[in-house]
Design goal:
274 residues, BirA Bifunctional Protein, domain 2, SH3 type barrels, seven-stranded mixed β-sheet, five-stranded antiparallel β-sheet, 26% helix, globular, binds adenosine-5'-triphosphate
Length: 274
């Protein structure tokens, strides 16, 4: 690899046609759009849902107002992050999408493994690399309005840190994962691998539900057998040994008082401070 290419912004080479040409069949119906900059790819797709003819991927080379859960912020930097959202229509009602973040986590982890990037999953919606956050998932769904009640749309937002600068990490207040060579990969091949993995998983989720993913999720669980805490509004509400997820996506903890099943809501999972 030349010195010149080493510093190049590989996201500059992203092309909808090249991504589409490299995708597996399940992702072929996805319309792919790439924009130089936007506030939030999730917000854009949600606003445009009524106009979408079918599944759509929106990738922003630079996202200026990325969103996390509960109105939190997702930070990214051009050429050093991947930020994209996939709008997908399911032939099931919106309540059947419970657990979708876990299936998406499995899909991303399995797709990244094809690029020799081994990640673990942190319930409910994060991917960890060497214990640090590599990627976050934010799913916003819509089942009301003009769509029939047995149909729903999910907008699946994904932010991946490839090689964020230390300054971003300092802004976030904790170290984040960094895989500089990931930013040097052919970004069209990487995106095609991620999109194909997602599409395969979403088709499977629609037909088989979360059951097809819980075993896979548990084998990728970052905190299985470790002491963890669940934090709600800054308060520790449970502490015990992490025991994976159950059939409806709740996180299981073996506490001194017995096994507790935690619903996603707006709670945070943390390893217990040493
Ligand atoms: P926690 O990790 O506290 O459980 P969460 O998974 O609930 O958080 P999300 O809402 O998914 O958090 O993500 C937003 C949070 O992630 C922000 O509040 C910030 O702390 C952190 N964050 C923001 N940008 C990044 C990033 N690029 N990489 C890692 N973490 C980030």
């Amino acid at each position: 690899m030349s010195a010149c290419r080493y510093n190049a912004d590989m996201t500059a080479t992203l092309s909808p046609e090249q991504i589409a040409a490299l995708c597996r069949p399940s992702a072929q119906p996805v319309r792919i759009r790439i924009v130089e900059e936007t506030g939030s790819t999730n917000a854009d797709l949600l606003a445009g849902l009524p106009m979408l003819a079918g599944p759509t991927l929106l990738l922003a080379k630079h996202q200026t107002a990325g969103r996390g859960r509960a109105g939190r912020t997702w930070l990214s930097a051009q050429g050093k992050s991947l930020t994209f959202s996939l709008a997908w229509k399911f032939g099931v009602p919106v309540h059947a999408l419970v657990g979708l973040p876990l299936a998406v986590g499995v899909a991303l982890a399995e797709a990244l493994a094809m690029f020799n990037i081994d990640v673990k999953l942190k319930w409910p919606n994060d991917l960890l690399y060497n214990g640090r956050k590599l990627a976050g998932i934010l799913i916003e769904s819509a089942g009301a309005g003009s769509v029939p009640h047995d149909v729903s749309w999910a907008v699946i937002g994904i932010g991946i840190n490839m090689s964020l600068d230390q300054s971003v990490s300092e802004h976030i207040g904790r170290p984040v994962a960094s895989i500089p060579w990931m930013a040097e990969l052919d970004q069209n091949t990487l995106m095609a691998g991620l999109l194909s993995g997602l599409a395969d998983a979403l088709v499977q989720f629609e037909h088989e539900g979360l059951a097809a993913f819980t075993g896979r999720w548990n084998s990728l669980d970052a905190y299985a057998g470790q002491v963890v805490t669940i934090i709600d509004n800054g308060q520790v509400v449970h502490e015990g040994i992490g025991a994976g997820v159950d059939g409806i996506g709740r996180f299981l903890i073996d506490t001194p008082g017995g096994r507790v099943a935690v619903m996603a809501g707006d709670v945070s999972l943390r390893p217990r401070e040493a």
